[in-house]
């Protein structure tokens, strides 16, 4: 018995020690955070099963970064309680892992593993611009990044690529590279926003939201989470083929990819989405386009994309006042149903609370009104009231 007690005590001490490296953050963090602080944050909700599974690993990450002397602070925030934080980071699903460095927010799209998260924290927490002074460093950086922007100076010793003009700015992605041209591509920042995503990739909810800043539409093949069926694989292959074969035609207007599951898209369309399926989304105005017919062949997809570009296929949704109200109603309904699945009693309380408050309000108004009537009646029959008024009230009472 004593041994068990000692083991339990040791486990509790270890848990407290590890938990000390992860700070619980609320909405006040937005005001108290230091300008130069770097934070790795996990957003969760109490009823999220995946969030609870991630929690022990998250404390390991916090302990590891602290032991390495990393400048990255580790925190977590309950998105359902700290709505200001969730809104600031555009959190749409749970769990969500983000890095906040300076004024820039980075989404972690990788696997929920200790090594993956640590690699992300160390990479993003380092300097924004790194010097690649050798071919080996360049190749190492290329192996770790799907998209990499690079400035090549006139005196750079790097001869990994052959460039006609130096200095130059390049982006490496999709197995090749593209050179920035101010006359053709406009402002450098806008070009980086457009080119900072692969032409075709797996897309999660936060990455999809961030793609709204690119000014491009996103072509999505929606497939099942646990392995795609034959139809899902066919649709993914079709989208990937068009992305590669028609890059020069569509790359300035579209980003291509696939998404496993449909929770985020269901929130956008405010309804059930059949999997597998195809959709084009415009995150800048929360709109979407659906193909007018089944997309079986390459020509069907090309006709759909051309129709989106020339306006013959109209978008649905949007961010009008009417659509925003409908979306709020849908999100409230979805939240209540989610809570009900986890805790029916809490969901019933959540639904009944507004009606209870309304009932209390009307009851209070009725009591106040009744009291005012009684006061008015007493004042009218008081000896100091005018004689005609007292006679009239007495006569009415006698007739009653």
Major sheet summary line? 6 strands, mixed
Gap from first CA to last CA: 83 Å
Secondary-structure class: alpha/beta
pLDDT averaged residue by residue: 79
- Low-confidence parts: 1-18
Q: Which percent range describes the beta-strand content? A: 15-25%
Query: How big is the Rg?
Result: 30 Å
Globally, the shape reads globular
- Helix content estimate: 40-55%
In total, the number of strands is: 14
Strand order of the largest sheet: 9-11-10-12-13-14
Order of SSEs, N→C?
Answer: HEHEHEHEEHHEEEHHEHEHHEHEEHEHHH
Count of discrete alpha- or pi-helical segments spanning 4 or more residues: 16
Task: Name the features.
disordered N terminus, about 400 residues, alpha/beta, single chain, six-stranded mixed beta sheet, five-stranded mixed beta sheet
Describe how the helices and strands are arranged.
Elements: H1 2-19, E1 22-24, H2 29-32, E2 38-44, H3 49-67, E3 72-78, H4 83-88, E4 96-101, E5 104-107, H5 114-125, H6 135-144, E6 148-152, E7 168-173, E8 176-179, H7 182-185, H8 188-195, E9 200-202, H9 205-210, E10 217-223, H10 230-245, H11 247-250, E11 254-260, H12 263-269, E12 277-282, E13 287-289, H13 298-310, E14 316-317, H14 321-342, H15 344-381, H16 387-399
Parallel strand pairs: 1-3, 2-3, 9-11, 10-11
Antiparallel strand pairs: 2-4, 4-5, 6-7, 7-8, 10-12, 12-13, 13-14
């Amino acid at each position: 018995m004593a041994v068990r007690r000692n083991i339990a005590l040791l486990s509790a001490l270890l848990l407290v020690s590890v938990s000390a490296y992860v700070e619980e953050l609320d909405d006040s963090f937005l005001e108290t955070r230091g300008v130069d602080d770097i934070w790795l944050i996990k957003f969760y909700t109490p009823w999220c099963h995946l969030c609870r599974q991630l929690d022990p690993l998250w404390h390991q990450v916090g302990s590891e970064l602290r032991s390495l002397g990393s400048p990255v602070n580790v925190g977590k925030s309950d998105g359902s309680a700290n709505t200001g934080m969730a809104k600031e980071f555009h959190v749409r699903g749970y769990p969500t892992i983000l890095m906040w460095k300076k004024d820039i927010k980075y989404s972690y799209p990788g696997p929920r593993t200790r090594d993956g998260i640590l690699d992300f924290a160390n990479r993003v927490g380092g300097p924004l611009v790194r010097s690649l002074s050798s071919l080996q460093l360049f190749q190492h950086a290329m192996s770790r990044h799907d998209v990499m922007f690079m400035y090549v100076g006139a005196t750079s010793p790097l001869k990994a690529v052959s460039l006609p003009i130096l200095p130059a700015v390049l982006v490496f992605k999709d197995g090749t590279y593209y050179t920035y041209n101010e006359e053709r591509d406009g402002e450098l920042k806008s070009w980086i926003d457009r080119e900072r995503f692969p032409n075709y990739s797996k897309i999660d909810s936060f990455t999809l939201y961030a793609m709204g800043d690119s000014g491009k539409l996103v072509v999505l093949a929606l497939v099942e989470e646990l392995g795609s069926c034959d139809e899902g694989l066919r649709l993914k292959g079709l989208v990937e083929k068009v992305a590669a074969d028609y890059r020069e035609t569509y790359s300035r207007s579209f980003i291509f990819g696939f998404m496993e599951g449909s929770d985020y898209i269901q929130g956008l369309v405010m309804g059930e989405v059949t999997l597998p399926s195809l959709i084009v989304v415009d995150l800048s105005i929360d709109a979407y386009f659906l193909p007018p017919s089944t997309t079986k062949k390459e020509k069907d997809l090309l006709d759909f994309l051309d129709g989106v570009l020339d306006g013959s296929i109209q978008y649905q949704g949007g961010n009008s006042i009417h659509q925003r109200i409908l979306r709020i109603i849908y999100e409230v309904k979805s939240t209540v149903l989610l809570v009900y699945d986890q805790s029916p009693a809490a969901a019933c309380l959540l639904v009944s609370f507004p009606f209870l408050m309304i009932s209390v309000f009307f009851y209070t108004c009725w009591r106040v009104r009744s009291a005012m009537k009684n006061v008015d009646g007493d004042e009218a029959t008081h000896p100091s009231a005018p004689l005609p008024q007292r006679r009239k009230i007495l006569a009415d009472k006698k007739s009653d």
